[in-house]
Amino acid sequence: MSSLTEKDRPIVQLLLNTGTCPRCILRFCCVGSQALYRCPYKDLMKDLKEFLKNNQEKEDTVCFDAVDPPCKRIRLERVEEAPDELNHNGVLQQIPSVNNENTTMQNSAVKVCNVCLGILQEFCEADFVKKVCQKVNSADYQFTSFVFSVSLPPQLSVRERAAWLLVKQEMGKLGLPLAKDDIVQLKEAYKWIIHPQLSEELGVPADGKSLFEVSVVFAHPETEEECRFLATACPDCFKPAKNKQSVFTRMAVIKALEKIKEEDFLKHFPSPPSSPKNLCVALEIQCNNGAVFVAGRYNKYSRNLPQTPWIIDGERKLESSVEELISEHLMAEFKADSFNFSSSGREDVDVRTLGNGRPFAIELVNPRRIHFTAEDMKGLQQTINNSSDKIQVRDLQLVTRSAIGRMKEGEEEKTKTYSALIWTDKAIQKEDIAFLDDIKELKLDQKTPLRVLHRRPLAVRCRIIHTMRSEYIDEHHFRLHLKTQAGTYIKEFVHGDFGRTKPNIGSLLNRTADILELDVESVDVDWPPALDN
Fold first, then answer.
1. Known catalytic residue: 348?
2. Tell me, which GO biological process terms does this entry list (predicted)?
3. Intervals of the chain under pLDDT 70
4. Catalytic, out of 337, 348, 350, 514
5. 466: in domain
6. Domain range holding 454?
7. 33-92: per-residue pLDDT in tens?
C-alpha cells in the first residue's frame, strides 16, 4: 500500500498552490504505485484536498488505496543537518503560505499543469486513448502486442527542473534530501496510465520487446521558447544537425540542464514554473511495424536484365530488374512502405544465373501484414515465378535480421562456378587449350576493371582460379568452365582488360581472346536453407 505521509504535506500544498496537477504531485512525492496514477483525475484531486485537511499527528498517514508495492524511488532518509536554505531571487516569497488552506483550495482547481503541460491530465483520458486506437485500427496492421513510445516537448525537462528545485528546497527545510532520480519520470508515469487503457482497447498486451510501435509526438507551441536561455548558458550543447529541424532536441536540453549550475538556472527561469494557458497538442500519432526479412535464391535467364534498376543520370536504361520483379509482389502482399534488396554478389546485365541460383534477401520496411505460413510463402513464390519468364525464385522463406549476415559471411572466401563462351582471333585446335585443364589454384592480380572504375576504388586485388575445364567447339570458339574465388572478374580474366588482369586467357594462349557469353552456374553459399518446394 502506497501512502502520503506527514512529510509530504508541505510539498502537496506547495505544488497545488503553484498550479501542479495531482499526478505530478504524486511524482514529486516519489509515489511509485502504478494503480494510484490510474485513478480518475477528479478523485485524485479530491483525495489530495482531503489529505491537506487532515490534522493528524506527523506519525499518522493518510493512505491512498493501491495494490502495487512502494516504488524503489522512495529513498527519502533523514539527514543529520538540513542543507543551507536558499531563497533564489526571492522566488519562494511569492508562494502562498502552506498553512493557508483557503488559498490552497482555490488554487488547486488548475486548468493546465505547470509541469506536465497537460500530459498527465487531458491525454490520460479515455477520449484520447480512443483517438489513438482509432488511428491504429484504421492503419490496418497485423500485430499481437505493442510498444508505446512518446515524444515530449524539450521544454518539459526545463519545467521539471524548476519544479524539482522548488520541491528540493522545501524538503531541505525538513532535513530531507531529494535527488532528481527519486522523482517518478513523466514518461514512466504516463505509460503506467496509458498502457492498460491501450491494451484493453486494442485487445493485445503491451510488450517492451514488441516490433509494433505506437508513438505519439507532443508539442506545446506556447512555451517552445523556454529552452533558449540554455543555448546562451551552454552553447556547446546545441549544435546543428542535418536531420534535426531545431537544435533544441530533448537530449541537448537534458545535457545542458546537467551542465548548468542551479543558481544560474534560477536566474533565467522561474521556480515554480508559470502556469500555461493551453494544453499540449498531439502533433502526430503514428504506427510502425518492425521490418520483416524474406530470403531465397533467384535464377536469371535473360541476358538483358540488370540485377537492380539501371538508371543513369535519372534516365532508366532498361524497363525492369531482378530486384523489381521479385520485390513488387512482396511489397503488395506484405503491404510494406519500402524495401531494401541485397544478395550474395551480383551478375552483369548480360550474364545469366543458372543452377541453384543466387542467394538474396529483402528487408520489407514497416509491413502492414506480417503473418505468413509456409504455404503462404510457397504460394507467393509461385506468383513471382508465374509473373515472368526472365527470373525464377526458390526456397522463399521468412528469416531473421541476424540470419542475413550469414549470406555475407566470408563472401570472398566462397567459390563460384562459371561457364564462359570464348572467341580467339587465331585458329585453335583441341590440344591448344587442353593444358588449361591441368592448371590449379592460378593466382591473378586484377586491377579494378575499367568498366567499374566509376563506382569502385582503384586497387589491385589478388584472386584465385581454382580449376578450369575446357570444351572445344571450333577453330575460334571454346567453352571454359571455371571454379573461382568469389569476387573474381571473369570477363577481365578472359580478355585481359588491356593488361589490367594478369595472367589472362589471352596471355596463356598467346593470342587475342574475348568473351561472348557468361553464365553463373553456382554460387556456393549454403544459405538460405533449402526447402522442399
1. yes
2. tRNA pseudouridine synthesis
3. 1-2, 55-110, 241-244, 410-412, 533
4. 348
5. yes
6. 416-523
7. 999 999 999 999 999 999 998 744 444 444 454 444 444 343 333 333 333 333 333 333
